[in-house]
Structures are given as C-alpha cells and as structure tokens.
Amino acid sequence: MTLSISPDDIRKQTISTQAKSPVSEEEMRQAVRTLLLGMGEDPDREGLRDTPKRVVKALKFLTSGYHQSLDELLNGAVFHEDANEMVLVRDIDLFSSCEHHILPILGRAHVAYIPNGKVIGLSKIARICEMYARRLQVQERLTAQIADAIQGLLKPQGVAVVVEATHMCMVMRGVQKPGSWTVTSSMQGVFADDAKTRQEFMDLIRHRPSFH
Ligand SMILES: Nc1nc2c(ncn2[C@@H]2O[C@H](COP(=O)(O)OP(=O)(O)OP(=O)(O)O)[C@@H](O)[C@H]2O)c(=O)[nH]1
Ligand SMILES: [Zn+2]
C-alpha cells in the first residue's frame, strides 16, 4: 500500500480532530457517576467520591493525542541529510485504547524508513506513535497513521511500521484469550516494492541486541 499524503493533508487531518469538546468536565463526571450507579455501586462512598474526577482526568490523558498536532510535536526536528540507509526505531512501547470497548491496547511499534534527503529526530518517531496511540483506535488504523505521518513529513524512499499488541478486550472479557497478540504492518515505497528491503527490516526487528 503506497500512500502519498502531504504534510498539509496530515495537518488538516489533525486539526479536524481538535474541535473543542461540546461536553463540559462536569457533564463527563456526571456520566461516570451514572456508570458507577449502573454497576450497582454507591458513588458517594468514600473510596469512590473522587472517582468520576479521576476517571475523566485519566480518559482525557489517554485521548490527549486528539489535541496534539504533528507541527507542535516535531518542533522543527526534520533535518536535511544525505543518509540513504535504513533508520529503524524498534520496541517503542505503546499504550492505546480500543475504540470498541475503551479498553487498553498494550504493545510495541517498530518504525523504519529509508531517507530521501531528510531525516527526523529519533525521539519524534516515538512521539508520533504516542500521539496516535493516545486516541481511540483500531490497531490497523494506528499502524497506518504512523506510517502515513512519516511518509508525508519526509517523503522517504520507503516506510515500514509493525505494531505488535495485545487487546484487553480480548483478554479480560469477550473471547478471553490471554497470550494472544495481533501483528499489523504498513509497508510503503521500497518496503512494499522490494522483498529484500522488507526482509532486512523484518530481520532487524527480530535481532537480539548485544546490550539486552
Ligand atoms: N480489526 C480490529 N478489531 C478490533 C480491534 N480492537 C477490538 N477489535 C474487535 O472489534 C470487534 C467488535 O465486535 P462486536 O461483536 O461488535 O463486539 P463484542 O460483542 O464486544 O465482541 P467480542 O469481543 O467478540 O465479545 C471484536 O471482534 C474485537 O475483537 C482492532 O484494533 N482491530
Ligand atoms: Zn476492544
């Protein structure tokens, strides 16, 4: 899958999700109180008295990626550089929330690209992953958004993203399959077109570093 998406497109996409919430903090707290009542709990008992406030704060943090933009997050850390070998940041911890159940998706991302005149600050790759993870997600979209962002910002020769994650909605409830993992990938440019480059990436994400 090769997508050509401009930084402007990505910015628009980001800005469109930044609309101010039409619901007040107080209304959100009341909704959590209602959920507690629905669970048969007493929201006024000591241990739960501040829970609506805490839950709203936690949910706002876990979805704070809606209020971030790539521009702000990058802080200008895109540099002109003649490098043309693969850059891989692997084992980036991910904590996201599934959009069907608002339960955690826990995993890690491996992100590689082959530059084409520009490189990006390494930490910014992890920050891009975090921005998209801190939204309500399905793993496939999260994976594609990370790849599209790098593609749009750097116009590299190629981008590869693999996300490996476990979904608490499949572990703690529903089908209850602890130990199950979902692997998703988005391969663009040379990683989609050239099996050898893709294989090199797959080998590197499996390689055991000597400092581990
Ligand atoms: N493709 C995809 N599916 C997901 C993801 N996260 C959760 N799901 C699935 O979304 C589906 C929702 O199915 P529904 O039948 O509407 O919901 P449900 O009754 O809660 O389903 P069960 O989890 O099977 O109990 C489930 O199969 C989940 O496993 C994700 O990131 N990607
Ligand atoms: Zn779910």
TrEMBL record:
Region (Disordered) residue spans: 1-24
The entry's keywords: GTP-binding, Hydrolase, Metal-binding, Nucleotide-binding, One-carbon metabolism, Zinc
Pathway: Cofactor biosynthesis; 7,8-dihydroneopterin triphosphate biosynthesis; 7,8-dihydroneopterin triphosphate from GTP: step 1/1
Location of the GTP cyclohydrolase I domain: 29-206
CDD domains referenced in this protein's UniProt entry, alphabetically: GTP_cyclohydro1 (cd00642)
Class in the EC hierarchy, top level: hydrolase
Record-level Gene Ontology MF annotations: GTP binding; GTP cyclohydrolase I activity; zinc ion binding
GO CC term (a single one): cytoplasm
Biological processes per GO annotation: one-carbon metabolic process; tetrahydrobiopterin biosynthetic process; tetrahydrofolate biosynthetic process
Catalytic activity: GTP + H2O = 7,8-dihydroneopterin 3'-triphosphate + formate + H(+)
Positions that bind Zn(2+): 98, 101, 169
Family per similarity comment: Belongs to the GTP cyclohydrolase I family.
Oligomer and partners: Homopolymer.
Protein name: GTP cyclohydrolase 1
Lineage: Bacteria, Bacillati, Cyanobacteriota, Cyanophyceae, Coleofasciculales
